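Consider the following input, taken from an annotated entry for GuaB3 family IMP dehydrogenase-related protein (Leucobacter coleopterorum).
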Amino acid sequence: MSNEIEIGRGKRARRVYTFDEIGVVPTRRTRDPELVSTSWTIDAFQFEIPVLGAPMDSVMSPATAIELGQLGGLGVLNLEGLWTRHENPEPLLEELSKITDEVAAVHRMRELYATPIKPELIRDRLGEIRDAGVTVAGALSPHRTAEFTETVVNAGVDLFVIRGNTVSAEHVAKEGREPLNLKQFIYELDVPVIVGGAATYQSALHLMRTGAAGVLVGFGGGASSTTRATLGIRAPMASALADVSGARTDYLDESGGRYVHVIADGGLGTSGDMIKSVACGADAVMLGAALGRASDAPGRGWHWGQEAHHEDLPRGRRVAVDPVAPLAEIINGPAHIADGTANYMGALRRAMATTGYSDLKGFQRVDLVHAER
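Applying the prediction step yields:
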């Protein structure tokens, strides 16, 4: 049965689903939450929880990356952010937190992010994380990757993330500007690469064929993104994850058994959204605003991404977030309010236990229902 609908005589559209339109269905079996495992492995690295901290200055500093690593997850540091442009960004983050006017905030952010990236700061920040004994991960956008790769690798990064609103295996650039050859780049690199975002079956399949260890799924779906309003582009996450999970299965057969991890990135505002992302096929999730709500987050009650200070067309904004709890409580609880903003892992374990699954791979097979909003 076709899932296309006619929106007019000359155009059809595919029916897709958001997390709000689907739900997880309990099965005949249940189990104790203590018998559930939330661990996952990518390449040679095993993590106790399927959570990556988004490489955003309001979410991840070296200190919060270390704390998330100690909690069993993976903190990904933004290597184009304030921490690699300024020796001491703490006063600058404090200054930004006191600017309430949106236009003034954008102007000030553009000034602060205009300071050149310093390779020695990339080295020092990643070294600080490594010295704490946790897995080291850093992120660059595609157009900065070639410039700073050597610095990042020499700093001892364990996992390298290439993250943008959308990343393709084929990019057409104007004359005189050499695009990143993603397949060659990954082949020559000595560390596993996670790349994205992707939002369709075909784009994800192309990224998997480059040799990426993981693919980020999402396009402009985060709390600070205005991509839908500025560009008219939208990729509802439930359908995007299901499509990319299908690409993973097909690539597993095509490659003779090579498994590429699918990581949900965007639109995960509550623990329920995170649970549904795994049910749709995600191996792990990359959390932004959810961790930006931590009382000890670098954003100090504000959340923003790279797009918020773009020099000519911002496709995101700095949004106010109400701190709900320290980072450790957002991850492991206890929760003090029933709105899905704290104790993400407790919620995941209980959902898995209620539906009878003991591990994440099993939970990806859980039944789903569609309910009109």
